[in-house]
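re: that complex we talked abt at group meeting.

here r the seqs, copy pasted straight from the sheet so there may be weird spacing, ignore it
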Amino acid sequence: MLRSRIRHVVAAALVAILVAAGSPAGAQEKSRMDIVLERGKLIVVTLTTVPPFAFNDDKGQLVGFDIDIARLVATALFKDPNKVEFVSVSAEGRWPAIESGRADMGVGGTTTYPDRAIRVAFTRPFIDSGISVLVSKKSGIKSLKDLDQDKYTIANLNNPQMADRAKRFFPKTKILTFDTPSAQFLAVKSGRANALQIDTPSAEYWAAQNKDELEVLPGLLGASQNNGIFMKPGDFKWWQWLDTAVAEMRTGSWYPQYSEIYHKWFGKKPPPQKFYLQQ
Amino acid sequence: MPPGSLALLAQGAVVSLLLAAAAIVGGTLLAVLLATIAFSRFAAVRAVYRVYVYVVRGTPLLVLALLLFYAMPALDLRTGPYIAGTLVLIVYTGALFAEVFRGGVLAIPRPQWESARSLGLPPLAMFRKIVAPLVTRYTLPPYVNVCVMSVKASSVLSIISVWELTLAAREIIERTFAVFTILGLAAAFYFVMCFGIDRLGRLLERHLALKGFAGERA
Amino acid sequence: MNFARWVAIYGPTYLTGLGWTAVTAVGAACGALIWGCALLLIRLSAGRWGARGVDAYVQLFRNTPVLLPIYLIYFAFPMIGLPWPAVVCGGLALILQNGAYISEILRGSVNAIDRVQFDAARSIGLAPWSTFRKVVLPQVLVYSIPALGNQTVLLLKDTSLLSAISITELTMQAKLLTEQTGAAYEAFIVVALLYLLLVSGTEVLFRVTHRAVRWR
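got the structure back, here u go
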């Protein structure tokens, strides 16, 4: 009697395990859209040391352009910009946080790259970006060609695109790799490195804050790039909604709110919402 | 010193202490379970214990944390840095505590076992009245040592972006560059916490010795 | 892709990481041993204040995590004009930390030396430094080999923290590979296995040394 009951329990446990193991791969998983609406709160993963996208101000509050955009998304969902929870990670921690389902979406100066898009899905860009090189004035580097010498060191973030660009644009320079943009920045400020590569808005922000010591090299490393909101791939309902929200922010009904945020952080008007509507 | 940094560091210290507390409580519970496995009748079960301790003690804590943090998505568990970090700490301290308990049990002199058995006590009573007090006396110093190690281990979790004292210090430094001041303050916080735990442990030891461990004095 | 294929393709890239881990571990271990002996010497010969000073030093490093000196030396020293390379900074932090623990280990062993030996040394006119070098140190070191082996394993594991200051040792290598290949746990499982190998190797090394020396 007991033995058969044990057998039943074991069988039930095995079935439960198989179902649990099978269901992530199953196609009938609930959309993240429904989960978020049910939960009543948006969970966003973000880097927290990429000013002006996302950073801690002097009071320790998380602020920034991307933070405000995330709050705008929460407003669209719940009519309340405070129904957001932010999960802070270092650069390589963004993907596990999305893949594990801990966060619904991610922001934080994250650029869209094809190889990155294999792991996470991106909305259309909510802001243009590009990669610039920030150098310390003491080093005397005036151009990319100057940088490409054995005696200089550049601080990279630990993602493959940075390593690629380093190989392509300045192969001779020595490389230091860090896991947060602020560590890169500290490396340059403390003299460990002579330069760093980062999104142009961040480079310009840091240069503006440290006018005597740092400056941004003219030109972009490569093309103008797109920063988007990223999320777990395969969830069409969620991606479609987020992408629609971003489209409306940049070119449609939510342009005024987007403009306001843009002006707050960049001090200028965003690109016109339609090319034929010059402002 | 940058304004507000003392408050932030204090908050970070509280988080570090909480992480260590979770590790100590969870680790002790896990260690009790592991220690019972360590003394099992079956060689295969004992081998499980040995493999567990070998792996956990032979791998750096950072690698364990990164493994859990990155492997979590593959196991489809909804965890963020905090849960992964706490789990790793519990796994880590569990192994350390288990070795401490095992050492404590092994240190009990044979005559005690024999006299306990000759008394005909049931296993639970034997455990409660004889094994536990003796093991406590032998293991209190190394136990307190592992508690101190838990506080220090929490600083490693800063690398998987668990916000605690070390990460708080790093963030302030990366914003303000007051490296010496902030790291000095952070070191002071850690020192107070670790030294405090150490002293508490010694106080406890003396107190228990006065009361008599195995019920020598009622 | 499956585990075996991933290892076959990316295995060799771990060699750089292995090299750096080994180099920093061996260097820091030797340095820590020397520093630990120096601390012991100070404790034994500089009277009450020497002993108190070493005590304070040991308490400081026992009650603070090793990441703090690593960050301090790496980021702060360039600001005061000492831009040492990352390996030196990390190695120095490890040496300072582990030297404290080693001096405590050696101190425990010193008490095991029979007092008679000190009298004998004085009676044949040995200067304090020679006494230390020829009488105390050899016995203390031999006696401490098991505990030193344990401490070396801890040091080896602490080298993984050097990834925070951009040294391309094993842990950093694993992080880079994870980012490059998108492989979540393959990179870290291989690194964990490599560390286990290194740790076991170190333990075997110390056990063999202990047995060999005990014969003398």
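couple things i noticed - The radius of gyration of chain B is 20 Å. Chain B has one domain: 5-211.
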